[in-house]
Amino acid sequence: MAQQGIQMDQERLCCSICLDLLKDPVTIPCGHNYCMNCIKSYWDEEDQKKVYSCPQCRQTFRPRPALVKNTMLADLVEELKKTEPQL
């Protein structure tokens, strides 16, 4: 049962772009979370349109939102890594 909980936490703490555990997690204005580098790269491809969107819900943003590391999520990812050494 505990293993199921860890698996669910691992899925929730994964980036939907790279499908790996979040690295330098950021939360964008719609509330979805991504690795800092993943969402930067995704938005770099949208630079010409000057409209930036969420890869999950497709909500759009103008201007490009500033990205700030979500320290609480970063701490949760680190805790998960400690409980699952193979991650």
UniProtKB/TrEMBL annotation:
The keyword Metal-binding applies. SMART domains: RING. Residues 15-58 form the RING-type domain. InterPro entries: E3_ubiq-ligase_TRIM/RNF (IPR051051), Znf_RING (IPR001841), Znf_RING/FYVE/PHD (IPR013083), Znf_RING_CS (IPR017907). It comes from the Eukaryota. Keywords: Metal-binding, Zinc, Zinc-finger. GO terms for molecular function: zinc ion binding. The keyword Zinc-finger applies. This is RING-type domain-containing protein. It comes from Dicentrarchus labrax (European seabass). The lineage of its organism: Eukaryota, Metazoa, Chordata, Craniata, Vertebrata.
